[in-house]
Design brief:
Elements: E1 4-9, H1 16-29, E2 33-39, H2 45-49, H3 53-57, E3 67-71, E4 77-81, H4 85-92, E5 94-95, E6 101-104, H5 117-130, E7 136-142, H6 147-150, E8 159-164, H7 168-184, E9 188-196, H8 199-211, E10 216-221, H9 224-231, H10 242-253
Parallel strand pairs: 1-7, 1-8, 2-6, 2-7, 8-9, 9-10
Antiparallel strand pairs: 3-4, 5-6
Helix pairs in contact: 1-10
């Protein structure tokens, strides 16, 4: 059994980190060996998983040394993973609640420091290396927007969850995400309708998804319990509300 790689994408603020954290811990509770990868340059997955602020602040991003220079079939230079993915997880991963192993792609440390090119390359090669790991389920919290697709960070992802909120800018971002993901050749691309307040919200997302051939596998209601959990520095999965139950149902839809 090879690894299962699931990435979560969407416009900023659509709930990617919440869904990534609930899925990661929910799958771990089902007995899966779960690796969570925070591939956002403004990382917050550690807190959502339930690590303390102190532990989160001590997390170190993947160092440059996880990559080495190699060559493709045409002899062109490229960066590739310099060690097995399991060694990366052992050396640089941190064990969080429910036994989830968390790894951090990188983060912006200083203004004017330049692009995150190497960090994206590290995340891309780590996800590719995961395909050699038996029985691992990897949940990847992608950066908001579309840059991760233009950089090919998702190239080796097997399933992409695209979040759709019931307002036009979020829906349009979802459409462009799906289009680029199809170009990249991701095998399974599905939508998750999030923060639905009423039937009008549900219909707006359903109509848009149908018009753009996006399969919706979950409809997550807006739930104030999640806002309270965040305000009280509590992991979303601990809220135990209707939205958490619907997020956990995604695992069943993906046959995990």
């Amino acid at each position: 059994m090879t690894a299962t790689t699931i990435a979560i994408a969407g416009k900023g603020g659509t709930g990617k980190t919440t869904i990534a954290s609930v899925l990661a811990r929910g799958l771990a509770r089902r007995g899966h060996r779960v690796w969570a990868i925070d591939a956002d340059s403004n990382p917050s997955l550690a807190l959502a998983l339930g690590l303390s602020k102190e532990a989160s602040d001590k997390l170190l991003p993947l160092p440059r040394t996880v990559l080495k220079e190699g060559h493709d079939d045409q002899g062109r230079r490229r960066l590739e993973l310099g060690m097995p993915a399991s060694a990366v997880a052992e050396r640089y991963g941190v064990t969080g609640p429910d036994g989830v192993t968390l790894m951090l792609m990188g983060q912006v440390e200083h203004a004017g420091a330049g692009c995150m090119c190497r960090a994206h390359a590290a995340a891309r090669q780590l996800i590719g290396g995961l395909l050699e790991e038996d029985g691992v389920v990897a949940i990847v919290d992608m950066e908001a927007g579309l840059e991760h697709l233009s950089r090919g960070t998702d190239r080796h992802v097997r399933t992409l969850l695209v979040l759709l909120e019931p307002y036009f800018k979020a829906l349009e971002t979802a459409r462009r995400t799906v289009e680029l993901a199809r170009e990249l050749g991701i095998p399974r691309i599905v939508g998750v309708a999030n923060k639905l307040r009423d039937e009008q919200d549900r219909a707006a997302v359903a109509d848009y998804a149908q018009a753009h051939d996006i399969e919706i596998i979950a409809e997550v209601p807006f739930d104030d319990a999640l806002r309270r959990a965040d305000r009280e520095h509590q992991a979303p999965i601990e809220a135990g509300c209707a939205s958490v139950k619907e997020i956990l149902s995604i695992a069943t839809e993906l046959q995990l």
